[in-house]
Amino acid sequence: MKDDLKTRSSLETWDRSTRLVHAGAEANETSAITVPIYQSSTFVFDSAEHGADLCQAVHPSHLYTRWGNPTTQALELALADVEGAEAALAFSSGMAAGVTAVMPMVKSGDHIVAANCLYAGMTELFERVLPPLGVETTFVDPAEDGAFERALSPQTVLIYVETPANPTLAITDLEAVAELARSRGVFTLADNTWASPWNVRPLELGIDAVIHSATKYLGGHSDVIAGAAAGSREWIDRVWPYLKIFGGCPSPHDAWLLHRGIKTLGLRVERQNASALELARFLSSHPRVLKTHYPGLPDHPGHDVARRQMRGFGGMLAFEVESLDAGRALLEALRLVTHAVSLGGVETLAVHPASTTHAPLTPEERRRADVSDGLIRVSVGLEAADDLIADFEQALATG
Ligand code: PLP
Q: Which pLDDT score, from 0 to 100, does residue 302 have?
């Protein structure tokens, strides 16, 4: 292998698209062009002393796969590089990453400030799991002026945000949140799943650490459940013992799939950014569409912040038709676009939250979660934008 790839000495100067292809190669101990899948739970000690040393090490890659694994190590180097972080950890799911990243930050008596529009699993962590352990969370509207500052207390140790938000694509000003938190000695953690690090790099905006559902844009092909966390080396060393104890490590095969997905992140997301913008423009001018939520549209409330902090406006959008029945009928009328949860893959997916994910809620609870009865959420894939627009056009005409 070329020395530059082995030592990462050129990574610093290469464009981000080049780095996506090569980051992690330095962990490849073989001449295979891709890092092999080390499908092994355990690794052989050279000697008694070697075994004793490894058992004392932080995050060794050749001891036991829950502690670390050579395939996972290569992935983690790529994850750190894509987020511009000193270090990263890979997990078996986005939820494993989220829970494992939050737990070392809190103890009984501490307080968290979180955005009110998080992925439901993280909201449940803050609302149901942490209060019995003595950790309370205040939820705020991240788009409201001064909301984070008003919610801070002397006990606040963590601000947790996710941007763009589900399902209204509300934008949080990451730089402002980071500055406020730093001035109060509060740690900031951002879920960067929806934007993807191709579009937003929260650490460059002052956020302390990020997590991901790598199931989505990082993996990119709807074929793996995985998670990631990235930040300073010191923070990662603080989180790793919790990964070891909670046990949410990825399988070596999933780590390999995720590493492969990352290589094409830039290409995929550039295309998704462009197609989502075209589709959002089409939908916003359609007479049956009451409202289109996309930060790339100038009338979106977060448009100016998004222009400042995002390289592209992302592949997620939402729009509203007149009623619950109309939303359901529209989904059934789509022919190319697939009706399924999740996001960030190569195929365009749409969901009608009011009749699926949010169906158990009352209409009033749905309104509070910003889910109107006719809201449709779309994850734009890699199909031709014209084909996607044609599919929504015929569904809006017939559905
Ligand atoms: N964060 C966000 C923004 C998500 O959309 C999801 C899943 O949809 C998660 C976290 C949880 O990730 P996973 O399903 O990989 O556990």
A: 96
CA atoms of 276 and 147, how far apart (whole Å): 30
More confident residue, 72 or 365: 72
pLDDT at 9 (0 to 100): 56
- CA 335 to chain CA mean position, Å: 28
What confidence score (pLDDT) does residue 348 get? 98
Identify the residue whose C-alpha is closest to ligand 1 atom 8.
342
pLDDT number for residue 5: 58
Q: How far apart are CA 276 and CA 174, in angstroms?
A: 23
Token pair for 93: 């799911």
Where are the chain's structural domains? 48-262, 267-398
The reply to whether ligand 1 has any atom less than 6 angstroms from the CB of 225 is yes
Pick the CATH number of 267-398 from 3.40.50.280, 3.40.50.720, 3.40.50.2000, 3.90.1150.10: 3.90.1150.10
Per residue in 128-163, pLDDT tens?
999 999 999 999 999 899 999 999 999 999 999 999
**For residue 1, is pLDDT > 60?**
no
Is pTM beyond 0.85? Reply is yes
Pocket-testing residue among 102, 215, 351, 358, ligand 1, by greatest number of atoms within 8 A of Cβ: 215
Q: What is the mean pLDDT of the chain?
A: 95
Q: Is 131 in the pocket of ligand 1 (CB under 6 A)?
A: no
Is 215 a pocket residue for ligand 1 (Cβ < 6 Å)? yes
Task: Report helix angle 385-398 to 324-333, nearest 10.
Answer: 130
CATH of domain 48-262: 3.40.640.10
Any idea which residues carry the catalytic annotation? Answer: 66, 119, 191, 216
- Whole-number pLDDT of residue 139: 95
In angstroms, what is the span from residue 213 Cα to ligand 1's centroid? Answer: 5
221 Cα to the center of ligand 1, angstroms: 15
Q: How far apart are CA 349 and CA 345, in angstroms?
A: 8
CA nearest to 313, candidates 331, 292, 327:
292
Q: Is 144 exposed, middle or buried (0-12, 13-18, 19+ CB in 10 A)?
A: exposed
Answer yes or no: is the C-beta of 254 below 6 A from any ligand 1 atom: no
Write out the two tokens for 336: 């190319």
The pLDDT-based confidence of 2 (bands split at 50, 70, 90) is low
